[in-house]
Amino acid sequence: MRTTPSIDCQAPVKVSIVVPTYNTGGAVLTGLRSFLAQTMPRSDFEVIYVDDGSSDDTVATLESELAGQGAEPAMRLIRTANSGWPGRPRNIGIDAARGEFVYFVDDDDWLAPEALERTYARAQESGADIVIGRMAGHGRRAPRALFEKPVAAADLRSDVALLASMTVHKLFRRSFLQENGLRFAEGEVRLEDHMFTLRAYLLTGRVATVHDYTCYHWVRHPSDDLNISYGTIEPGPYIDSVRKVLAILDAPDTRVAPGRHRYRLAANWYGKKALARLSGQSLLDRPERRRAEWVDAVGALAAEMPPRADAALPTRLRVVAALARHGDRELLEEHAEFEAGVDHQPCVQSAEWNNGRLTVRCGTRLVRKSRSGGLALPLAFSRAQDGRLLLRLAQSVAAVPGAVGAADFTKAAQRSNVRGLLRHRGGGTVLSVPLTHRVVEVPLRGDTAAAERVARVARWMRLPALLTSRLPGAGRKPEMCALRFETEFTVDPSSADHGRPLAAGTWDLQLQLGCGGWRIARTLRGHSIEVPADENPKPQLPRRRPAVHATAVD
Known about the structure:
By secondary structure, this protein is an alpha+beta fold. It has helices at residues 28-36, 58-67, 87-96, 115-126, 174-179, 192-202, 235-248, 260-274, 280-284, 288-304, 315-326, 329-340, 395-398, 403-406, 410-414, 448-461, 465-468, and strands at residues 2-3, 13-21, 45-52, 74-80, 99-104, 110-111, 130-138, 171-173, 207-219, 342-344, 347-354, 357-368, 377-378, 381-383, 389-391, 417-424, 430-433, 435-444, 480-491, 505-515, 518-531.
């Protein structure tokens, strides 16, 4: 291991930025320049690059750039033999750090100018061991709901909100890491960041956020061939990593008592990291041999999980769990074809400016798109004899033990979540807009073509449930129904960012629907807010654009 000659490594600083690097090339300078632009005084932080045996010009690029920086801020480059994964470089960075806090940053990401100043101030103010700065995703889904309000003492033992942010791109109190022996798994271990973060969350009840300033810019480059997160994943070792994460919930120092909350925590990995591999496009995009390997690996995990754990899963993954235990790959593929087409289609009914505020009325519905690109049909539901709302499954899938019970959509509809979103087109920041919504059941009768015609008429007439119930034949309980979500929200550009004005630029309006485990954001075509770069922004009317790409965010 080699390190560049540097400054007094004993003098304390407020924050140590630890950056593992590997064959990043010139892209590494984006992060470096963001560190140099920090508003925190340069004497108050250091930057530690740990290169994991790069074979390109990354080291030469950094050495050349750091040579001209001197000791303010203190910058070091540590070179080590290739380990193939970021765990060991991060551990080396922790050992070399002299800051009160450690901030983990990936080599192709960057920090906004006030990131260090704000996260450190938040830690001092709240006494938190971990501070999560608001994130913006560039080619990635960055967490958003976690930053809708200020958080000063989040505790994973009593809430699941922190599950939205399991990466390590956060500020950690160094003494907290040392006292608890928090280290990264070394070697080629998938989900090593989740293992580290989950242990950290369970060892403290003091996690805070910076909710009103975008601190961290999380980037996925178009050519991300060297990013291990996007390399080929071996099903067996990956599911073993899921098991290791779940084992943390039973470890002596991080044990979570059995019960509903523990299953809600476990569902984050059992559902999102394992079962999701057998659903929708995720399964269909894999070659046949890989599909079989994933079915075997996930099916083995599903067999180990107690059936009561399924209650914590959303409807769509409960069905997949039943199919995974059954172990029939053809049925899983058939259901994946069904799931791959599920979407929602928002339709703006009105968008009006009044006194500098934009009010939008719109609706959306769950649909299934055909793979051939034909007409999208409403996603169909039926009522059981006991009144439960059931997602209608293919007959072959419904015949699998437990599948029909897993398709219970009653609570999913009741707990559906509709959000208005503002996404900064250039900066990547996503903001939530408060709104109200209601769920309307639209009767579907006859074949699917007739069902589509009924839904289209109801949508065109904008009929609420009270009026549709008076249509001819409404006295009979419908065989099938579709779900429509009606909503209205208002945007005030002068205060939409947690009381502050929107940043200059273009903000696209989106509608996100979360229901039954599907969480999809779709852009409201032709509607955006233009905020000019002056002291008194005057937003323009929504403008028409020839094309708007739908963007899914979490």
